[in-house]
Amino acid sequence: MDRPLEIAFHNLQSSESVEAEIRRQVERLETRYGQLNGCRVSVEALHQQHQTGNLYEVHVTLSVPGRELAVSKEPHHAKERYAHPDVHTTVRDAFKAIEKQLAGLRDRRHGASLGGAAGGPLAGRVALIEPGADHGFLIDNSGTQLYFHRDSVTNGRFETMRRGDLVHYVPDTTDTGPVAVKVRLATADT
After folding, report:
1. Phi-psi category of 165—alpha, beta or left, where left has phi over 0 and alpha has psi -120 to 50?
2. pLDDT in tens, 107-120
3. Bridge partners, residue 140, by sequence
4. Which of 81, 143, 160, 185 has its C-alpha lying 20 to 30 A from 151's C-alpha?
């Protein structure tokens, strides 16, 4: 990182174990994604509850080239989710959420670098085509499932596609989630 990690505690004493957990999480993100310019983490005690446990809110702001990503995580319905909510759990949840944002940003940038308005062609496999249906689902290398319609198949025939077939596709995102457009059977490319 270009700037040193910033950690702040509000309404609670600083904790070496929490700081160590935050540093581990940031190091993991740096290892997996690189190109982090800076990171600020704020840990705040919301209430002092002696019977049900204290609730904590964790704010993570990551600076990456060209933008900042931010997440605020507080254990909603903490008594229902955890028997004893603690700050370490909330820290891990916040870093899971920011990692999802980083993965999405990386995927969008990777797709854009391949060319095309919605990104370039990627490889995946047919995960499901229900008999008699006019659509199916692909699964990409990261395990994300993408919907595709029979009209998206640009070579070969939709009816001959089978589970496990290797395909190339152009990813896109709609209001209902990720979709694959311009699906091309890889076996027909050769």
Report:
1. beta
2. 766 554 444 444 45
3. 124
4. 143
For the stretch 42-89, pLDDT in tens is 999 876 655 556 778 899 999 888 788 888 776 655 554 555 567 888
- For residue 169, is it left (φ>0), alpha (ψ between -120 and 50) or beta? beta
Residue 77: which region, alpha, beta or left (left: phi > 0; alpha: psi -120 to 50)?
Answer: left
Residue 66 and residue 33 share a domain: yes
* Domain's final residue, options 51, 82, 113: 113
Neighbours of 161 (CB within 10 A): 19
In a domain? residue 178: yes
Using left for φ > 0, alpha for ψ between -120 and 50, and beta otherwise, residue 66 falls in: left
Residue 135 shares a structural domain with residue 55: no
pTM here? 0.56
- Given a contact cutoff of 8 angstroms between Cβ atoms, the answer to whether 92 and 75 are in contact is no
Kindly state the helix (H) or strand (E) to which residue 125 belongs, with its residue range: strand 122-128
Q: What does the pLDDT look like over 146-188, one tens digit per residue?
A: 889 998 898 888 888 888 889 988 888 777 777 888 899 886 5
Q: Which of 96, 154, 36 is nearest to 167 (CA)?
A: 154
What is each CA distance from 95 to 43, 91, 154, 175, in whole angstroms? 12, 6, 40, 25
